[in-house]
Each structure stands twice: as structure tokens, then as C-alpha cells.
Amino acid sequence: MEITWSIYDNDGAPVTGGSASTSLKIRRVAGGFLLDWDDLTFKGVGWVTPVAILDEISAVNLPGAYRKVVDVAAWDGGFYQAILSYSAGAVVRNGTGQFYLKDGLEADPYLAGQAANLDAAVSTRLADADYTAPDNTSILAIVAYVDELESRLTEARAGYLDELGAGNIPADIDTLLTRLTALRASYLDNLSAGAVALEATLTAIKGAGWTTETLKAIKAVVDGFNPVQVFSGFSVTASQQQAMVTIDGSATAKAVFKVGESKDLVLYVKDRNKQAIDLSDAVLSLGVKASKTDTAMVISKDDADFDHSQAASGVVSVHLDETDTDQVPRSYVAELRMAWGSGEDTIVKSSDIVLEIQRAVTD
User: Fold this and answer.
1) Cβ(16)–Cβ(64) under 8 Å?
2) pLDDT score at 101
3) Which residues does the chain have with pLDDT short of 70?
4) Chain-centroid distance, C-alpha 210
């Protein structure tokens, strides 16, 4: 290694030709030994040449600069001090410098200390046979997905996410998972572009002749329906809101009686899906009029008059005696009333039943 020192006189001018007036001692901090320049070993006593002079580097190119080249390859690692002096008449200079050696080379002491943590050359830290290289293709795909999400996450959408709140997120996610059935998820899939795109699907559903007034007309029809009613222990579905009644299991809702005839009127009650309505808990009544516009009933039967033995299967019967059927021969309109509660909103009325009373051949 090279130890250098610059010397200037009292006026600040570089000192040249002053090699013989320089001196250099080197002290090893560990043990405090000085270098014997005679055999280049460190000693506590018995030095032959404890002082060396510096060589002038160049009086022309580097005036005032001096150096000493020292072979430190065999020196112990650790801190060393260079003790320098110059004395020539009125110009006297002294200085010291410190350096650190490791493995025969000058080194930064901190980095040298950290180097002790490396028990092998860095070049040995190559991948072994079990090393799996990063999946750069997938990483780039993830980056692309993130970029796409950032482009789609508008300020408004970010606001929706903010409204979830940290405390509500788990509950909100649970609710979404409950509602997002496989069927509903398929609806979302159908929103994508392509043959099943939403616009194409709506166009197909609308069919020919669809106008801007079509929905309005549908609404007017729907508004005329009775709302779905829910009673205690019974739910009236849309298909049950108007019960369909047939007579004696036939396909019609027409019953024929002779004047003064006494027999049972058997009613089969089904919903619009042709499923039997369970009448077990229903309170029944039957009203018969000559015309819908009439206010008075010509025949009226209460729940106690009905046979409920097959009510669970949607079959009930009521007996019409000779007094009931002693009417002017003609067609009458009847209606079966079913109630599952006490309020008007618990009542379901059947479709019209035709009760035809015919003239008897004999008295």
C-alpha cells in the first residue's frame, strides 16, 4: 500500500526537495508495537530502523507531495497508525493517519466487520437444482390485471367501497355470497359482450311489435291483480289468488240440479298451476246469485254446512236440499269464498261456478 503526505511551508507554498527532512513511523494499535523498517516486523523494543523517510513524488507535477510504499501483505489484520513529521529550519510539520488492514489489504473497518458474516464467496450463492425461477409470465399478467382494475375503479366506484366501512365488510361479503347464487351469477355472466349480451337478450325477449308503450300496458294489467297475501300459517301465492273450481272432478265448473232436488255439490279446488289447494285451515262459504249484479243471495252456505273430510286434498262438498234448489229454472252464478283469517285481505275467492237449475220432469 502507499502512504502519502503533502507538506507546505509557513507561507502555504509546497515544500520540494525535502525528502531527507521527513520521517515516518508505523504503529500497530494492537499491542502498541512499532515497525522495524530493517526487517519489516513489529517490535516492542530492539528496533534497528524505527524511522523511514518519505520519497518525493514529483517536484514538477506534484510539488510538496511525498509517499512511502509499504508491503503489508504479511501484516496482521487490524488498525495501524502512520506517524509523520517534517523539520527543516522554521518549517516544522507533524501528522498522523490511521488505516485498517484485512487479509493483507487496506479495508473499510465497518465493511470488513460485515464481511465476516459471509462464510463463502458470493459467487457460490448460485441456484441449486431445487431452485424454481420466478414465473415472470404470471407476474406480468398480474400487473396487467392490477392496471385494468385501476382503470375501472373510478372515483364513484371507490366511493361505494368506502361506504362499506371496515366494520361492515365481513357482513356485507356474507350477504353478497348468500345472494349470489349460481343462477344469479350466470345472469351476470350474460351481461358480457357476445351472443348472450344483455342487449341481445332483451331484444329477443321483447320480440316483434314492442313499443315504448308496451311496458305501460303491462303495468296497467299487473296493477289490476290482487297483491300476494300472507296469512298466519298460510301463504297465498300468485297462482292461488284466484282458485279454479271444477265440479265432481270434471273439467268444467258447471253443476246441474233439478228444481227441488236434494244432493251434494262436490267442489275440487286448484290453483292456476292445477295444484290442489289445502283447505284444511280455511273457513268456507258459498254464495249463489241469479246474476252478479244482484245484491241478494238465492242460496247461501256457511263453513259449518261443508264436509271438510277431504279438505287437505282441495276437495270439499256442501249439501243443497230441496229448499235450496226450489228456484226458477235458469243458470245461476256461484262463488266459493275461502278465508284464512279475519280480515278482508285474507280472503280468496274462486272462479265463477255455474249452477244450472232445470225444470223437473215429474213433481
Assistant:
1) yes
2) 92
3) 109-110, 112-129, 163-168, 190-198, 201, 222-242, 248-251, 342-345, 363
4) 39
Q: By the 8 A CB rule, do 290 and 330 touch?
A: yes
Please give the Cα distance from 153 to 155 (Å, whole number).
7
Its CATH architecture, for the domain 229-358, is Sandwich (2.60)
**pTM of the predicted model, to two decimals?**
0.36
Instruction: List, for residues 16-32, the tens digit of each pLDDT value.
Output: 999 999 999 999 999 99
Q: For the CA atoms of 267, 268, 269, 272, what is the dihedral angle to 10 degrees? A: -130
What is the domain partition of the chain in residue ranges?
Answer: 2-115, 137-208, 229-358
Q: 353 Cβ partners below 8 Å, 6+ apart? A: 245, 247, 253, 254, 255, 267, 333, 334, 335, 336
CB 307 within 8 A of CB 355: no
Q: Say how far apart CA 135 and CA 143 lie, in whole Å.
A: 13
Q: How far apart are CA 73 and CA 101, in angstroms?
A: 9
Say how far apart CA 261 and CA 358 lie, in whole Å.
10
Q: Which cell goes with 168?
A: 361492515
Strand order, beta sheet including 55-58: 2-6, 62-69, 55-58
The predicted structure's pLDDT at residue 345: 64
* Angstrom distance (rounded) from CA 13 to CA 52: 24
135 exposure class (CB count in 10 Å sphere: 0-12, 13-18, 19+): exposed
- Determine contact, residues 53/88, Cβ cutoff 8 Å: no
Q: Which residues pair with 108 in a beta bridge?
A: none
pLDDT at 348: 86
